Every structure is written in structure tokens, then in C-alpha cells.
Amino acid sequence: MNLSRRSILVAAAPAIALLAALAYSAWWWYLAGTLREGVAAWAQARAAQGWTVGTGEVTVGGFPLALRLTVPEPSIADADGDSWRGPSLAATVSPFGVGRVHLSAPGRHSLVRAGAAPVPVDVIGLAADLKLDRRGVLQVTLDLRGVTTADGGFDALELVARRLGTLPPVPGDETMGIVATVVNLSVPQEWGLVLDPKLASGHIEARLMGVIAPGKPAESLATWRDAGGTVEFDAVSFDWPPLAGTGSATLALDTQMQPILAGSFALRGLPELVDRLVKANRLSASLASVFKLTLNVLSKTASDGTSEAKAPVTIQDRVLSVGPLPLAELPRIDW
Fold first, then answer.
1. Is the Cβ–Cβ distance between 56 and 72 less than 8 Å?
2. Distance, CA of 106 to CA of 88 (rounded, Å)
3. Taking a C-beta distance cutoff of 8 angstroms, is the pair 248, 264 a contact?
4. What is the value of pTM for the model shown?
5. Cα-Cα-Cα-Cα dihedral sign, residues 192, 193, 198, 202
6. DSSP annotation string for 118-153
7. Nearest to 97 by CA among 139, 133, 54, 137
8. Cβ contacts of residue 87 below 8 Å, gap of 6+?
9. What is the torsional sign of CA 177, 181, 187, 192?
10. Residue 90 DSSP SS3
11. What is the pLDDT of residues 282-311, one digit of tens each?
């Protein structure tokens, strides 16, 4: 009898495997259709809000181990005329689990502010991973490589943004944690910095305090500012020759919707910075001597043997300063 049952199972195994394969295939194709319908429904919802969304012919591949949705001609424009157009966008999810989405879109992106000329952005590598839960997006991990614009670019940017606090968020509470690292960031020459043209490296660990609601940036950011919204930079480190340093700072927006920053940093390279300001005719030699004497009194030897001094770093009225030394006038931000 046991032999008979075993024989029946052996004989039925191919049929069972075939049924399982057919069931999985049906499940995969159902998910593929759901993804396509989801993209179409999202585009229709945006259109109802006055947006224009383009996708091209959306396809889903990757069978059997993945669902890879491809949007060949992605573009989106809001009702005010601000728009983005990008290269082919691929979104990959696993049919065995939900909650994780991988996005990839290397190539040329075009950004347009209403009434302005398009700004092309070339990206060698663009990858993003999204973690989702029942309340929406929990975490975004972004990895950008080889970004180039007409004004500069950077070699690499790694960013992790994670939702903090409760939903709905409590006013004044921390709502997002941000960790970011950038390598070889070029700065526009019109800023007139006396630092090197490239920020060799920078790293931040920050928290967004308060709620930035969806909507037009000028309006939503003004509401956030008026409610006491800030960005708390708990840890900052940078190497921007001749300066390098570590510290912390608080960023907010002033009445003109421009950034204001107040921070305290341990800095290395301040004497070299003073020399560059003198060479650029932005500081007199006599005043430079006074600064250097003061630095000699305030400086101490760091763990690596270099000399460092604590100094405030500020942005006020769009002027970036280290202590009393103005470094650059930053461009006005038109939200």
C-alpha cells in the first residue's frame, strides 16, 4: 500500500509541478497587470490636479524572479510649468514580497523652471531604493554617480532619508532623518569663493524638524518656517581646501525665504584661508596679521598633529562667513 501511494505521488509529481508553475505564472502576470494599472491610475490622478504626465508604452518584464517595470519616456510637469523629463526609468520589485522598490534612471535628465530654459543634467549612475510600509515611504536610499551640469557637478552622492516620528506628525517634532555624503562637488565660479573650485568631500547627519506639507515650495516652506521649522545638522564634516573641519549647525529660512545658518566648527587651514583672502584683495594685510595672531592664541593641536581653531560658520543675508571673514555671496533662491 505504501509503495502504491509512493508510486501515485511519483506519477503525480510532474502534474503538481506543472500546476504550481501555472499558478505562479498567473500570479506573476496578475502583479504585472496591477503595476501597469497603478502607473496609469497615478498619471490620471496627477492629470486631475492639472499636471501633465508622460510615460510612453509601459512594459513589465523580469519573469520569473522579478517584476521590472520600464517607463521609456518619463516626464512630468505641474500646473505652474515646472517640469522634469528623464531617460528610461526602470522600477524593480520582487514578486515574493512587498515593501521594497529599486529604481534606476541613468542618462540625461532635463529640469525646467517655468519661463526658464531647460537645464540638462547628465547622470552616469542613478539608483534609488525605497522601503515602504502601510503608511507610505519609510526610507529612501539614493546613489548618484558622475553627475554633470553646465555649472559643475559631482563624482558621487550617497543619501539616506528616513521618516521619523509619528503619523500624523506632531508640529515641531523631528520628521525626517538625513545622512548624506558627497565627493568632488564643483561650485559655480560666480560664487567668488576663495576656496578650491571643488569640495573634496562632505558628510552630514541631519534631522528635519517640523512638517513640510505638499504644495508649491514657496507656500509650503513659508508655512514650515512660520511654524518654527528648522534643519538640525547634528554632525558635519568637510574637506574643502584649504579648509577642513567638523561641527554642527542649525539651518532655517529668513523673512525673504533665504537660508540662514548658525554653526560651530573646529577648523583647520584658517591661516591659509586668510592668505587667499589677502591675495584676492578681500582682506588687508594689516587686518590679516591681526587675524593670524588671534588664531595663534585660539588654535590647538588636533589628534593628527595639525593646528585647528573653533570658529562660527554662518550664512546671513546670503553671505557665507567663517567668523568675521566673509567667503562668498550666495545666489538668491527663487522658490
1. yes
2. 8
3. yes
4. 0.86
5. negative
6. -EEEEEEEEEEEEEEETTEEEEEEEEEEEEEETTEE
7. 133
8. 105, 106, 107, 108, 109
9. positive
10. strand
11. 989 999 999 888 888 878 877 777 789 999
